[in-house]
Amino acid sequence: MSDTTTARAAAQGRELDPVTFEVLKNAFATSVDLMSEQILRTCYSFVIYARDFSSALCDAQGNTVMQGSQDLAAHVGTLHFQCKAVLEEFGSDINPGDVFAVNCPYMGGTHLNDVSFIRPIFADGELIAFAQNKGHWADIGGNVPGSFDVNATTHFSEGLRITPLRVWRGGELIADVAKLLVSNTRSPDISLGDLHAQAEATGVCEREMHRLVGKYGKHDVVEALQEVQDYVERIVRTRVAELPDGTWTTRDYIDFDPAHGEGLVPVQVRLTIAGDQVSYDLSGSAAAVASFLNAGYGTAFSGIIAGTKTFFPDVPLNSGFYNAIDVDIGPEGTVVNAGWPHAVTGFCSGPYEKIMNAGFELWSRIVPERAMACSYNLEYLLIGGHDARTAERDYFMWYDWMAGGWGGRSDRDGSGATSPIFGVGLAVQPLEGQERLNPVLTTAHELITDSAGPGRNRGGSGVRKGGTLTDCHKTVMSYCCDRARSVTWGIEGGLPSIPHGVWMNENTPEERFLGSVFAGVSVESGDTFGRPSAGGGGYGDPLERDPSQVLEDVVDGYVSVERAQRDYGVVVHAVDPEIDHYELDQAATELARDEIRRNRKAWLQADPEDVAARYRSGELSMLDLVRQYGVVVDWGTGELFPTTTRQFRKMLAHRTAQHWI
Amino acid sequence: MRKHRVAVDVGGTFTDVCVFDTDTASTTVAKVSSTPDNPMRAVLEGIRAANVDLSQVALFSHGTTVATNALITRRFPKAAMVTTRGFRDVLEIRNGTKSDLWDAYKDVGPPYIRRRDRYEVTERVNYVGDVVTPLDENEARQVARVLRRKGVETVAIGFINSYANAGHEQRMKEILAEELPGVSVSTSSEILPEIFEYDRFSTTVANTVLGPLVSGYVNELEGELSGGGYDGDLLLLHSGGGSMTPTMAQRYPVRLAASGIAAGAIAVRDLAERCGYGNAIGLDMGGTSTDISLVHNNEIRRTKEWHVEYGFPICFPSIEVLTIGAGGGSLAWLDEAGSLRNGPASAGADPGPACYQLGGKEPTNTDASLVLDRLGTELVGGAMSLDRTAAENAIAGQIAEPLGLELDEAASDVLQVANANMADAVRLISIRRGYDPRDFALVVFGGAGGLHGAALAKELSIPVVVVPRHPGITSAQGCLLVDIRHDLTTMFQAESSTAEVDELESEFGKLESDATERLRREGASESDMLLERSISMRYSGQWRSLTVPISSGPEALAEAVEQFHEQHEREYSFRRDDTPVELYQLLLRATGTTPKPSFPRRDKVEQDPPEPIAHRRTYFEECEGRVDTPVYDREQLVAGTRIPGPAVVEQLDSTTVIPPGTPAVIDEWLNIRIHVSEASR
Description:
Largest sheet of chain B: 9 strands, mixed
Number of helices of chain A: 17
Radius of gyration of chain A: 25 Å
Structural class of chain A: alpha+beta
CATH superfamily of the domain at 4-71 and 214-259 in chain B: ATPase, nucleotide binding domain
Number of helices of chain B: 16
Strand content of chain A: 15-25%
CATH architecture of the domain at 4-71 and 214-259 in chain B: 2-Layer Sandwich
Radius of gyration of chain B: 27 Å
Largest interface: A-B, 99 and 76 residues
Oligomer: heterodimer
């Protein structure tokens, strides 16, 4: 074993014997998982129940020692910031039985909905650790139900900002403070339930830590809290040292900045490997946007950590991981480091996923066997109003998110209908549960034919969910997404998938495309709505895809006969489709592929105005524009976005066309 | 008079046939290699090997892996699904999650029924069961015709909200029956009449794809048995810890999906109960993995959230078994940061631990036990001899040398890490549910259980360890101990304070008459029937429910609600008396008791152990070195024998370690009980 020498050196740098170390390391993991188990069982909010939460054990300095194995990616790398904020605020005035709350995104938090509860853990009167649970409250006040106000430009309209705040003192709930917190939400009872559940969950971790101190002694436990971090840092550095040195740069884009009209908003990521050091630099990213699609430094950091971790899936997450990675977020005031008082609630759909996917692209070049094209964008649809099914017209909140397609990979297709990269544990809700609680009848929940980005290995398929409002009163709809214009892209010659965006009353005279971000749109009983989630981007040239794979996709309806020809140049004849009898036309396929090969670079140069006009006339489809012509328009009106198109074509040239032979 | 009870337990490696003679109250066992390709072969071979005369058999029970293996290998017949228009992909979208959050190259498998075989019909029912869109019967017939053209053998019907109104599913089933005679059809409202479309469809589809296979297997086995002269019912162990007859197994084949692992947990409950322990944690430790189960107040802990493969939930109640990758063959290794790790990779049976000399070079837990002389080089019976030098070389080269440790110390460290991992797993199944391990007995079995039991109990502060007389066949014995049992449910959504007690009573009444009918069909007499009601509820606004028993009568509901508060406090450490409680679902457990074998109880005569068969210098970490340790032959230990640790007890199928200063007793059932809490140090 070549690792033996390293292993020996590493073991000798430790004070704890190997057994105590391994036992405590695993026991820390158990103490955090126990906390997660508890919250999952006791939470009130269905958002937390759907696993939008995380748990951590931090040391006395606030550094993260262990994070839950099933935690949400977007919380990774933020929990230590929140813990340090509590330390900063309260200093030595932190006592046994206290519990603190914090959600401030300007102190390394995520967004206002994510409320952390932090409990100090003492041994023999000495502060040795903190237990933390961060959970997404379904509502935290602000202008719109669910607190996702796209139009917010500052946090004042987003909801309640909680700077570090004591909620329990010496084991006693400070009831007036708790009441103030929950009274600023639209569902105080649920919030109060979550407040209790979260605080009690941190108590589970505290009990476990006390047990460990009783058994192994305070000294060894405190030593282990540090050694577990050193251990992770060592693993990361060992792995990184084996990779080639170099610097790689890429850009991903947010759809637009309302302050500047149309035009994609760049998020730039530069990655450098030198020896055993990984460094990131986000400077070069655009100024903060005039919507809530900004990130605070905590979530930008999280996007980097989560993107990196995807290429080291087996390494535990803690501050040792963060120490091994040097991150320069760049100056304050950018879309990735917005700073007070910029609105940042939409970080999750905005910069966060852009940083993560950009990271995937960069790492795909360094570790090609784990390469992956872009995945669909996190999206939340919120409908809030009064339920006319009940005499009291109870307040309801239909809060929905979808699975979608992940990017194509080096040796296989992308994963279809999967939870977002933002948090793979975020489970799609059962619609039968939603229908009981809300006056919304779901009309479809299905995969979308042709939604997968074509490639030698195609992306995974996206999903469509549609619904009808049945009995509602004073109801509004908001949507938090992105990538209606910065469409989910392929790599190594692969093509994009499909644009995101909500359609109202589709196929009726009242049809409207509402786009990928909006807030407070009034809706009435009888209105229908629907939206896709994108598929994953393709990996590799679709003309190199094995035609028999395309045929299988046609049989299953993942790909239509028409798009098989247009995207893959594969000609399939439906002989007896009822019993899945289709035939591949080899000769026609060769001709079709030749024709695409000859023309496809020219298509990307075609006059955008002309292409947009052909879209408006119905001659070209949305998929033709995105995949063949690289033209981006308002998908509802067909109005051309010239700047966006220029940027999109440049992106396609770099990620896709340059790899075509 | 038929005097034999026969249990056949099919495991991954061996098929055990356990024969209990009611005249002599003795158990004999035959072990044959399992034949996963065609499990029936091993079953029949085992019956022959055990010299069973089927005309002398009063009761034949069987734990089978046939359903589990079919789900793992996905060897399914041509299956299709019919669902509500717009929802063809509920099965493929699932809930979107993955088992591994971070590995982007590890996917959940494709659905059991491919997209091309999933069909939609126009129909829709809303959340209260009102018809929004009637079933389009022309479409339904058209689908049926297509399925016939495709030669489909088994069909799942899953419509949205069918738990609230099963009418459309029923009608669809009638149409399929008319158009596709002989094809097996499962509707989601019959299989699992519960809210949440994906869970219901997933369970139904698993049932659908297993149907023809399980029917075939069960019919064939029944034929073989009756051909041999057995005239009773073949009793099949199901995941819920009871058994069912072939008639029911053919309707609910998915209930057999955990049949193979249920027997161990049943054995644990029985052993613990006989020893007077109402609470027990069972640890079945084999070569590659350990199955952990939990018994509380004489009830095996059950769960409704489980799967054979991640992403494919089967929502029938099942015995809760936590399987972890830790066994005798688990590998000890150093990771790149110098930490000593154990498992989940295993040397398995091939190449096996280094000491087997079958090509394995990596150190395993078995090697560590051998190096420390807890395990002997010659196993009793001489079936196999172990190579000590090979074990030493593996531990020395891979662990001791890199860590700068002495050989013994390194081997001891390997086992301590393995035990700590298992202890963490036990904590997850106990502490996280609000159980304190100190209130439990630890029942250890399987080949490696006895080697680790005492150390593990110490780690968890569990006071007593029970090592059954035959650790290698304990599971098979569990098979002999089951009753016929069915679990029925119906949705009942109301607030507890305003719920109609009459309506509740009448819903339970319907479940009970259904259950009685099922048991009657299985030949149970009224006097052997036991019907137990329970109800699941939750705090208003919460998503997860808890199930508590409920009696009948006007006060029953109020009592159940109070019990709900109490149980909530125990499991989740808080209660909210002022929050409204929502009723959610009614459950009925219907049992038809079958006669059980009675195991012989020996008289206990307090005495010293017999002459040891050997002495070894065995390493114990609590002594930080080796101490002289007597080795006893289990066959020679009679009831009442007191053994002061340290000692090693050897028998054909396992070895038990009693640590220094720890007293052990052979009880009246010939179990070894190690009283860890009475250890002198």
